[in-house]
Specification:
By secondary structure, the chain is α/β, with parallel strands linked by helices. The chain has helices at residues 9-29, 36-49, 60-70, 88-95, 140-149, 202-212, 233-243, 246-264, 295-304, 332-337, 352-367; strands at residues 53-57, 78-82, 99-103, 125-129, 153-157, 165-166, 169-170, 177-181, 195-199, 270-271, 279-280, 286-290, 341-344. The chain folds into 2 domains: 9-243, Aspartate Aminotransferase, domain 2 (3-Layer(aba) Sandwich); 246-367, Alpha-Beta Complex (Aspartate Aminotransferase, domain 1), CATH 3.90.1150. The protein has 11 helices and 13 strands. The strands form 3 sheets. Strands 1-9-8-5-4-2-3 form a 7-stranded mixed sheet, sandwiched between helices. Helix 2 runs parallel beside helix 7, helix 3 crosses helix 6 and helix 8 (246-264) runs parallel beside helix 11 (352-367). It starts with 8 loop residues before the first helix and ends with a helix. The chain binds pyridoxal-5'-phosphate.
Length: 368
Amino acid sequence: MTVPFVELRDEHRALRDDLRRAWDEALDSGAFVGGARVEGFEKAFAEFCEVRCAVGVGNGSDALVLALRALGIGKGHEVITAANSFVATAEAIVHAGATPVFVDIDSKTYNIDVHRIENCITARTRAIIPVHLYGQPADMHPILEIARLHSLSVIEDAAQAHGARYHGRRVGSIGDVACFSFYPAKNLGACGDGGAVVTNDPKVADTVRMLRDHGSPRKYEHGVVGYNSRLDSLQAAVLHIKLQYLERRNQMRRRHAQTYTELLSHITGIVTPFVPDGINSVYHLYVIRIEKGSRNDLQKYLKDYGVQTGIHYPTPIHRTAAFASFNSSGCPVAEKYAERILSLPMYPEMKRNQMQYIADLLTDYCDG
Ligand SMILES: Cc1ncc(COP(=O)(O)O)c(C=O)c1O
């Protein structure tokens, strides 16, 4: 048997007629950048996230840069974020002109360790970017409390967590502003690049709208130096269709995660995901931790038997060459886990026999 890490074709096969119709309408309309399709999707996505405003942008990385700039964060400022994330989180801080400060991850949830944040706050700190890693919300209550005490902004990096809930609240509606990616493999993915900034603050939304379009509130008026980072109408049409199925597809991911956990939790040396009370993960990834033996050898063994896996991420950001010169408060957990984590195949169309096959392989390898 072969099990791919992700499979995008099944979703598109099922939606092909709807997608083709929407694209035909968009092609016939001649409106490719901005326009009714983008506005329609923004409205629907804001409702989904339970916020007042959503602004479509070019991708999730730009969403973070534009959110930082809209909050006035830039040169001379520090922004605290997690050592284990996709590099885009830290890149955005640098592109906005600020300095990233990396905080270690919690040893159970793999999200930012909230107990280590306050030690990293200086007179220059302006914001915290918690990342809802693997689809599981970061521990937002203590983060909001620290932010309130020190007058910091909170920007949620929700690129992996469309639809997740934290104590009943949708991710994206908890911080001052939140950023999403619609990269094709995300829980809500376009047929190309896309992203969104969501917020309850209409002023922040207006600033992001201006920044995404060359700093221009009206044609050829340029208040600030902006960007070209607009969501195009073909992607907006696709996203609007797929949004209708997102809850159902997230529920399928949750069911698969539950099956995986049932099948794997008895295996010696394998730690399945820990989900604290009040957290509703959307399992963008299902990540296990290997407590004994070599993760790389295990990954190769699975590959030899046709199972594709991933590592998210093999190098904590502060250990990459690009970010080695930035300050980290020492991130021993992120460093240790980078060698122990393994992401198993996860997508809504997965079948139980595929998970059983993976569990049998892991059982043979670890307990055989
Ligand atoms: C946590 C996180 N932040 C930001 C991004 C950047 O999103 P994009 O690829 O759309 O620029 C990603 C995308 O992989 C991500 O996983």
